[in-house]
Amino acid sequence: xxxxxxxxxxxxxxxxxxxxxxxxxxxxxxxxxxxxxxxxxxxxxxxxxxxxxxxxxxxxxxxxxxxxxxxxxxxxxxxxxxxxxxxxxxxxxxxxxxxxxxxxxxxxxxxxxxxxxxxxx
Length: 121
What we know:
The protein is mainly α.
């Protein structure tokens, strides 16, 4: 696995040195990577990825020592919320008494198109 070539992908090299919180300001993908095969892959052949011994040991340690975070009992999967296309978004006032799950962030992006005279359409 390698970082993608910025000339042929949407990789934003400056993002590699940015704090995760700063990346939240962008509403498009800017990090990309490529998988490089070490041999020819035949049609229908299964592909395996070996992350290496160090990664496997870290994962095993994580599984052994992991405990749920506070509030995990109220976790709601994003696909559950995304699947509900009939319930209106809650107002700020409604969220005070009926908040969204703590593992979710609800964001709206407002995009305006301008016509030839510079007026919003």
